[in-house]
Amino acid sequence: MCIAHIADYRTLPGPGMLHGVTVLRQPKSPELRQLYWRDEILQLLFWIEGEGLGSQIDADVVDRFLGPDSEIALLHLDRLVREGYLVSPSPGRFALAERGRLEGSRLFDEEFAALTTPSHGECGAECWCRQAPEEARSCAAQRA
């Protein structure tokens, strides 16, 4: 890790949190904070949908998953509706728009790419699944 980035990390000791968990703080500039919260919210909604936990979120869901940062995240939901990433089917409820689903999928794939590639020995070194998550899913489906 670059020494310049060490100051951007902190440990969360709060109640309900795992003691000693290190997380990246949100960026200081308003522009980067908007990108940070867009990515966090889209990944959260994409994951919730993928796990079959629902297709909409509200303040309670955001609070359950984002804990102490939920109040900050809630400030960004209306902006994400205006930008076309989310829709608001009813007051205080939010769901992924198609643009948000595509972006959430891409972000989720990037975040977990190392965990979704085949393990050693599942296919040859020349297989495309070693290059892209989409290829890994296709390769796994063909072997099933």
Structure, described:
This protein has 144 residues and is mainly α. The chain folds into 2 domains: 29-111, Winged helix-like DNA-binding domain superfamily/Winged helix DNA-binding domain (Arc Repressor Mutant, subunit A, Orthogonal Bundle), CATH 1.10.10; 118-144, no CATH class. 52% of the residues lie in helices and 12% in strands. It contains 7 helices and 4 strands. It has helices spanning 3-6, 30-50, 59-66, 70-82, 98-111, 113-116, 133-143, and strands at residues 9-12, 21-24, 86-90, 93-96. The strands form 2 sheets. Strands 1-2 form a two-stranded antiparallel ribbon. The chain has a two-stranded antiparallel ribbon with strand order 3-4. A hairpin with a 2-residue loop joins strand 3 (86-90) and strand 4. The protein is elongated, with a radius of gyration of 18 Å. The N and C termini lie far apart (39 Å). Residues 1-23 have low confidence and may be disordered.
State the separation between the terminal residues, measured CA to CA: 39 Å
Low-confidence stretches: 1-23
| CATH secondary-structure class of the largest domain | Mainly Alpha
The H-and-E topology, N to C, reads as HEEHHHEEHHH
Q: Strand order of the main beta sheet, please?
A: 1-2
> Mean of the pLDDT scores?
77
Question: Over the alpha carbons, how many angstroms does the gyration radius reach?
Answer: 18 Å
Class from secondary-structure proportions: mainly alpha
* CATH superfamily heading of the largest domain: Winged helix-like DNA-binding domain superfamily/Winged helix DNA-binding domain
Total domains: 2
